[in-house]
């Protein structure tokens, strides 16, 4: 009586494989690890086994983003990974998997990069990231009326967040927000009229990763 089992796991930092064989008189366990290391101007990135022509994927600060058509590969804690095989002298597409929408603290300006590399090249696929929360505020004034339509919103004391414009019902969408902060609205001639509101993102996330919160601007 005998048998065997085998397992292969592809992950961000390489491939692990193992096998187990047994018979009436013996047992044998084999395992191995394969991967790659890419040294570049911004550090060192571990990856699955490297091909001849590759791309360094850069999504600053955005960990855990999966890459289309690369089983098990995702960006590391700094937001880097490697697309380990490209076709030289041909148009290649490096894309972030759609499941990034479930990550409430990551916003991407672009999700696809195309390139035509030469043979043996290491090219860069760079994605513009906004690391922080995506929030839909419902903004009212002290009297409970919607904030002015067209008011411009600016997040204070941070450079990572986007600015935004208030909608006709007081709705305001902002991305790249820290968990706590302050937002200033300005409107009118020369944006001379202002109000501010503080926020703290403690309500649960929806499946879309969008947080909704009502605030009063004073």
Characterization of the model:
This protein has strands spanning 3-11, 14-22, 27-34, 36-40, 43-47, 54-58, 80-83, 92-95, 106-108, 112-115, 122-126, 129-131, 133-140, 152-155, 164-165, 171-177, 180-187, 193-200, 210-216. It folds into two domains: 3-126, Outer membrane usher protein FimD, plug domain (Immunoglobulin-like, Sandwich); 132-216, Sandwich (Immunoglobulin-like). The protein has no helices and 19 strands. Strand 2 (14-22) and strand 3 (27-34) form a beta hairpin. It is mainly beta.
Keywords summarizing the entry:
218 residues; mainly beta; Immunoglobulin-like; 2 domains; four-stranded antiparallel beta sheet; three-stranded antiparallel beta sheet; elongated; Fimbrial biogenesis outer membrane usher protein; Fimb_usher; fimbrial usher porin activity; PapC-like_C
Number of domains: 2
The CATH superfamily of the largest domain appears as Outer membrane usher protein FimD, plug domain
Number of helices: 0
Q: Calculate Rg over CA atoms.
A: 24 Å
Helix residue percentage: under 10%
What is the 3D shape? elongated
CATH domain topology of the largest domain? Immunoglobulin-like
């Amino acid at each position: 009586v005998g048998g065997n089992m085998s397992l292969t796991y592809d992950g961000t930092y390489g491939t692990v494989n193992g096998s187990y064989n047994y018979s009436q008189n013996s047992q044998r366990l084999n395992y191995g690890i394969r991967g790659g290391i890419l040294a570049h101007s911004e550090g060192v990135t571990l990856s699955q086994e490297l091909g001849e022509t590759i791309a360094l994927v850069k999504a600053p600060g955005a960990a855990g983003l999966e890459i289309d058509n690369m089983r098990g590969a995702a960006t590391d804690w700094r937001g880097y990974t490697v697309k380990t095989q490209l076709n030289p002298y041909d148009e290649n597409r490096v894309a972030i998997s759609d499941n990034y929408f479930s990550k409430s603290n990551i916003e991407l300006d672009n999700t696809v990069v195309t390139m035509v590399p030469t043979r043996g090249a290491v090219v860069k696929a760079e994605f513009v990231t906004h690391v922080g929360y995506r929030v839909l505020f419902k903004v009212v004034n002290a009297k409970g009326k919607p904030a002015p339509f067209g008011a411009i919103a600016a997040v204070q004391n941070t450079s990572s967040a986007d600015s935004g414009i208030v909608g006709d019902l007081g709705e305001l969408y902002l991305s790249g927000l820290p968990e706590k902060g302050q937002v200033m609205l300005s409107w009118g001639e020369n944006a001379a009229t202002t109000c501010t509101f503080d926020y703290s993102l403690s309500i649960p996330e929806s499946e879309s990763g969008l947080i909704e919160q009502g605030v009063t601007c004073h």
